[in-house]
């Protein structure tokens, strides 16, 4: 039977018409039944063209040159297998963890909140009493005492006016300290980081960086003045400090330098950085307490044309104080700034 089939194929140059009209896809190894006794299989040879052969028996083994045909299950399973993507080596951090890390960095830079034993009622009481005492002592008590004695500030010489300003500033500062002591005495003893003065610590570098901010504060002063210029109807008057500088009285200039470079920084830093800033950390973050206390510090100078530079200067001094938990660095920076302004007036 095999010889008859081979003889028939040798005489026929091509496949029968019924077989040639079959569509054979390009998938290798796919079987297509022709009849009960025939099948067509694709031969996987190394030649570029595929060769086909007709087997006379259903269970005839393929030759060594032709590999075994794939089954339908293998083909479908191969098509259904999806490529495996490489998993990322690192997992991205969510925004909450990033925010916590940023908050930790800020806390390390500016320090942690203080332990505040009093409430907002005490904070408001101290600040209101300090403002009232500052106004009462400087505008009423000292002038009234001078009037009783028989003189006024305007009738004094440059040196007398400088001494008058020094005594007024000292009286205002002592009144503020007395109010602080009276209002906070019931909370004693206070924690060790309250109203702390110390020469120890690595705070000199912070003060040096703060001094590098002085040109920026000066630029902000000019910007603030351009933003809110003086009204044309506002009379231009010279202060007693400027008058003594113009007169070139060395004693008067020395007394005024003592007022602006020593007395004012001490009193203001005790109130705004020593008391107000740490007290606010009970109700808000440290950075927000620095900003709020700086705004209060600027408002206490009653000068709209100097708001922006004073706020910025208050922020710088607040950061230095929060980092060191020490009033001495902020007092030193405040004193250096006032001295810088005083020397600028002497030009």
Tell me what you see in this structure.
- With 347 residues, the chain is mainly alpha-helical.
- It has 2 domains: 40 residues, no CATH class; 236 residues, no CATH class.
- It is built from 13 helices and 3 strands; from the N terminus they run ααβββααααααααααα.
- Strands 1-2-3 form a 3-stranded antiparallel β-sheet, with no helix packed on it.
- Strand 2 and strand 3 form a beta hairpin.
- Helix 5 packs antiparallel against helix 6, helix 5 runs antiparallel to helix 10 and helix 11 crosses helix 12.
- The termini are far apart.
- 21% of the residues are buried.
- The N terminus is likely disordered.
Put the structure in a nutshell.
This is CAAX prenyl protease 2/Lysostaphin resistance protein A-like domain-containing protein. This protein has 13 helices and three strands. It is mainly alpha-helical and 347 residues long.
Secondary structure blueprint with pairings:
Elements: H1 2-11, H2 17-20, E1 32-33, E2 39-43, E3 51-55, H3 72-80, H4 95-110, H5 120-149, H6 158-184, H7 204-211, H8 214-227, H9 240-247, H10 250-280, H11 286-299, H12 307-324, H13 327-345
Antiparallel strand pairs: 1-2, 2-3
Class per helix and strand makeup: mainly alpha
**Total number of distinct structural domains:** 2
For the biggest β-sheet, the strand order reads 1-2-3
Q: Portion of residues in helices?
A: 55-70%
Q: Please give the count of helices.
A: 13
Strand content: under 5%
Q: Tell me the major beta sheet.
A: 3 strands, antiparallel
Distance between the termini: 127 Å
Strand segment count: 3
| CA-atom Rg in angstroms | 46 Å
Low-confidence stretches: 1-70, 79-87
What general form does the structure show? globular
Pfam families: Rce1-like
Protein name: CAAX prenyl protease 2/Lysostaphin resistance protein A-like domain-containing protein
GO molecular function, one term: endopeptidase activity
InterPro entries: Rce1/LyrA-like_dom (IPR003675)
């Amino acid at each position: 039977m095999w010889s008859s089939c081979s003889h028939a194929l040798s005489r026929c140059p091509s496949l029968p018409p019924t077989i040639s009209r079959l569509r054979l896809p390009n998938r290798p190894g796919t079987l297509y039944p022709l009849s009960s006794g025939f099948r067509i299989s694709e031969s996987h040879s190394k030649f570029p063209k595929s060769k086909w052969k007709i087997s006379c028996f259903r269970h005839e083994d393929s030759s060594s040159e032709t590999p075994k045909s794939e089954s339908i299950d293998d083909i479908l399973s191969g098509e259904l297998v999806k490529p495996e993507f490489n998993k990322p080596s690192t997992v991205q951090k969510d925004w909450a963890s990033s925010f916590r890390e940023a908050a930790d960095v800020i806390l390390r830079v500016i320090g942690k909140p203080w332990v505040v034993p009093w409430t907002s009622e005490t904070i408001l009481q101290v600040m209101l009493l300090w403002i009232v005492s500052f106004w009462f002592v400087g505008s009423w008590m000292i002038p009234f005492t001078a009037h009783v004695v028989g003189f006024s500030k305007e009738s004094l010489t440059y040196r007398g006016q400088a001494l008058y300003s020094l005594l007024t500033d000292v009286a205002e500062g002592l009144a503020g300290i007395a109010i602080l002591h009276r209002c906070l005495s019931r909370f004693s003893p206070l924690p060790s980081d309250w109203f702390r003065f110390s020469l120890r610590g690595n705070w000199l570098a912070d003060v040096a960086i703060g001094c590098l901010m002085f040109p920026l504060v000066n630029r902000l002063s000019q910007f603030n003045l351009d933003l809110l210029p003086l009204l044309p109807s506002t009379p231009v008057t010279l202060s007693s400090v400027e008058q003594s500088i113009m007169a070139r009285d060395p004693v008067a200039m020395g007394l005024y330098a003592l007022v602006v470079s020593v007395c004012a920084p001490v009193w203001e830093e005790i109130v705004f950085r020593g008391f107000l800033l740490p007290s606010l950390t009970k109700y808000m973050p440290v950075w927000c307490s620095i900003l709020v206390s700086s705004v209060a510090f600027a408002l206490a100078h009653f000068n709209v044309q100097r708001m922006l530079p004073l706020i910025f200067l208050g922020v710088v001094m607040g950061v230095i104080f929060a980092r060191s938990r020490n009033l001495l660095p902020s007092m030193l920076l405040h004193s250096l700034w006032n001295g810088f302004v005083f020397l600028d007036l002497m030009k």
